[in-house]
# Entry
Amino acid sequence: LSKNYAEALAQIDKELEFWPQIVKHKCKQRLTKMTQYIIRMRRLRLKPRPTLERVHKKVEVRESRREVKAEKAAMLDRSIQRELLARLKQGTYGDIYNFPMKEYESALDEEEAAVEAEEGDEFVEDEDEDEDGESDEEEQYEEE
# Structure
């Protein structure tokens, strides 16, 4: 058959001239269906298609469980570290243990940062009180 649709229909009519009409009709229908399929495939090939990605549910569930466990372990480590630091400050252990200086200093730095943050908040509150009312210098000039 010809690649041209109209010529292919003419060829079917010519070659199946003495065949029953129903057979000719079925052949033409089959040709039409194949032609439409080819046109549709060309059109789809030109369009950009989104690529589908597999969802690895089993792996995701496993990873989420691991994350939860790691979070619990980290919280436990932090609570143990705080407790040991508190005991160390109280002097529970005395001088019997040699602590790793790096971890000890980092823990102390964290504590100092927390204390400074609290003091900074108090300082900001004091400034707010001055801004609400008049400042001390303005009050002195008004009294004179």
